[in-house]
C-alpha cells in the first residue's frame, strides 16, 4: 500500500490535478491534463529499451565469432543465467577443430543457440562421428550442420541410423546394380542437399510409400530422391495435392512421366502455375493443347514468366512457327534459343527456300542433334549453299 501511494504521489507531480482550478475553467484544465498525459505516454512508448541479455556471452559472441551487437544480444538474452563461458568456448573449439568456419558456427549459434551449451563429448561428438563415417568432414560437414543444426540433437541409434538406412535402401534397391561407393555417393549428396530429410522420419516413410503407390518405383524413385530430396520432407497432404494436380492434367498412375510432372509442379506454387498456364492461353493454345504439351514435356512450366513470354513471342511471332508445331514438339521451349533454336531454324529455312531437301526435315530431330552432327547433316552436304548456311548459323547475313 505504501508503494502504491508513492506511485500516486509521483503521478500527481508529473500530471496536473483534474481538481485544480476545475471549477473556474473545467474544459481548459481537462484539455491540459490530457495533453500532458499523452506526451508522457508517447515518451514512454518510444523510449529505447536497453538490451536485455547476458553481457558476458554477448561480448564473447561479438569478439570471438564476429556477431553483430543486435544478434549477440538476441542470442545471449536466452541465457541470462550463464555465469561462465566454459561451455560456449568448449563448443566453439570443438567446431573449429572439425574445420568449421566462423560463418558456420555463427549460423549454428544463431539458429540453435543452446548448442553452444551442449555437452561436446556426449551430445555433439557421437553425431559428428556418425556423419564423418558417411564421408562428411571439414568445411563440407560444417556447411551441412550449419544448414540443419538441430540434427545434432537427434539420437544416432533411434533417429539418424534408421533414416539414413531408409534412404540408402532406396538407392540400393533401384535395380541399377551399382557399387557400394556409388550408392554412398548418392546418399552423401542427397542429405547434403536437404539435411531436413533426415529429421522427418514419419514424413519420409509415408511419402516414400505414397509415391510407390502412385507407381513411382525403382530408378524413378531413386532419381527423384537424388534430384529433389525436399519432396520427401513435404507434409503428406502437400505431396498428395501435387499429385492430384498432375492427375487433373490427365497423367495416369504408373505413367513414367508422372514423376517428372511431380518434380515440375513441386518447384512452383499453384498460383505461379496458373499464371504460366494463362500465358500459354493468351498465345492461343487451348486447354487440351497445354495439357498435352505438359504431359509430353513437364519442365516447360519451369521457365520464368518473363522467359516463357519471350520464347513464345519469338517462336510464334518472329519465327512464325505454327502452334501445332510447338504442341508436337514442346521440348523446344527448354532449349537455348540464342545458341541452338534460332541458328538452326535459319539454316533449315534456307534449305527449304533453296529446294535442296528431298523432304521437310524433322524440327525436333534437327534441334536435338549434337552440333557436329547437325553441321554434318544440314550444312556440309550442300557445297553451293555452305557459305550462306554457315553465315546464317553464326548469326550473320550473306551480302549479295
Element-level helix/strand string: HHHHHHHHHHHHHHHHHHHHHH
The low-pLDDT segments are 1-52
- Compute the separation of the termini in Å: 106 Å
- What class do helices, strands and sheet pairing give? mainly alpha
The count of strands amounts to 0
Protein name: Transcription termination factor MTERF15, mitochondrial-like
Keywords: Transcription, Transcription regulation, Transcription termination, Transit peptide
InterPro entries: MTERF, MTERF_sf
Family: Belongs to the mTERF family.
Describe, in plain words, how this protein is organized in 3D.
The protein is mainly alpha-helical and about 400 residues long. Helices cover about 65% and strands about 0% of the residues. Mean pLDDT is about 85; it is low at about 1-50. This is Transcription termination factor MTERF15, mitochondrial-like. Keywords: Transcription, Transcription regulation, Transcription termination, Transit peptide.
